[in-house]
Specification:
Helix content is 71%, strand content 2%. With 167 residues, it is an all-alpha fold. α1 runs antiparallel to α2 and α3 (77-117) crosses α4 (122-143). The longest helix has 41 residues, at 77-117.
């Protein structure tokens, strides 16, 4: 467990640095009259991820986290099963984007994750699975003016209704 924690923190730190470097190909600051530059969100989210990796490494070095002092294996059979179920859900999510739109794929992934993996109640699952894509729509399409993939033609009535609300 100890070796896994520092190895993963190191790999994620390197990935963060790469994403920060790559995102500087676009403006990472705020552009007057336009909003955040194209590299703003990737850069600053990657910076936050890098700082988290530094905090993990610091705790590992000091031996203050449970994983930093553990001699147990990184994952047991339950951990591997969970990784496979979550990875399968993410693969399904990505595959569904071109069919049911980004927002539809988010809704379906949340249903899968919350109900079938998390075993939460249907009322909670429905509120989160419907509310989150709608909030994301208004954030990306309305506030950020960034269009997400809209899927096949049968999703168009949803987008027509939502664009009527925005504009």
């Amino acid at each position: 467990m100890r070796q896994g924690e520092i190895t993963l923190a190191g790999l994620l730190a390197l990935f963060s640095l790469y994403l920060m470097w790559k995102s500087t190909e676009l403006p990472i600051g705020y552009i007057r009259g336009q909003g955040p530059g194209g590299g703003f969100w990737p850069f600053w989210l990657s910076c936050g991820m890098l700082l988290s990796c530094v905090a993990i490494a610091w705790n590992w070095w000091r031996g203050t986290s449970p994983a930093a002092v553990s001699d147990e294996p990184l994952m047991d059979s339950f951990g591997w099963r969970t990784i496979i179920l979550v990875a399968g859900g993410i693969i399904g999510f990505v595959a569904l984007i071109s069919v049911v739109s980004m927002y539809g794929a988010v809704a379906l992934f949340l249903v899968y994750y919350l109900r079938f993996l998390g075993r939460h109640s249907w009322p909670l699952v429905l509120v989160i699975s419907i509310g989150t894509p709608i909030a994301l729509f208004f954030f990306f399409e309305g506030a950020m003016q960034i269009s997400m993939p809209q899927g096949m033609r049968f999703t168009q009535p949803f987008f027509d209704l939502m664009y009527d609300i925005i504009y």
